[in-house]
């Protein structure tokens, strides 16, 4: 873990400990806001789109959304916090969880059109999750490296993975792609080797 990554998680841990000792939800909100501000100041959350930063901001905005949803009569403030969490969500499953919270708030407020739109998003995301899972399982079962790679690339695109493989699904796909690449290289080396005396005779 980089020094910045450690600093980010230290800030998050200290905030979580501080929140436990506070009574007023507004004070708890200020503590979580300090984590967001920490990530915006002095380059502590650089590089952008790093797994450490994304994880911290995803859960920080989730905590802020939860506090707002439970205490603030204006549901749209909670919706905004949850929406702020979405770009940092480490995997599709986490996005569905956030969208479910948003849908519940819209339904509670009688915002039927927004609720329906969010429910459609949830259905789409759940279909994506099912497709990702199916592609990974198909890749695992396949003995053909090219077919395996094709399924994994499809899963990678559907999971919206980035180059650093954020999220559990993306890490799993990345590891399987690495294994496939090793198998391909090993097969090619074996193919390129000159036949042994045994091979020539039999």
Q: What's a quick, concise take on this entry?
A:
The protein is mostly helical and 202 residues long.
Give a topology summary.
Blueprint: H1 3-20, H2 25-40, H3 51-71, H4 75-85, H5 92-108, H6 112-141, H7 145-158, H8 168-192, H9 197-201
Helix pairs in contact: 1-2, 1-3, 2-3, 3-4, 4-5, 5-6, 6-7, 7-8
Helix and strand element order = HHHHHHHHH
Mean pLDDT: 82
* Strand content range: under 5%
Class by alpha and beta content: mainly alpha
Low-confidence stretches: none
Tell me the span between the first and last alpha carbons. Answer: 53 Å
Task: Describe the global form.
Answer: elongated
Largest sheet: none
Report Rg. Answer: 23 Å
Describe the structure.
The protein has 202 residues and is mainly alpha-helical. Helix content is 78%, strand content 0%. The chain contains nine helices and no strands.
How would you describe this structure in keywords?
single chain, about 200 residues, mainly alpha, about 80% helix, about 0% strand, elongated
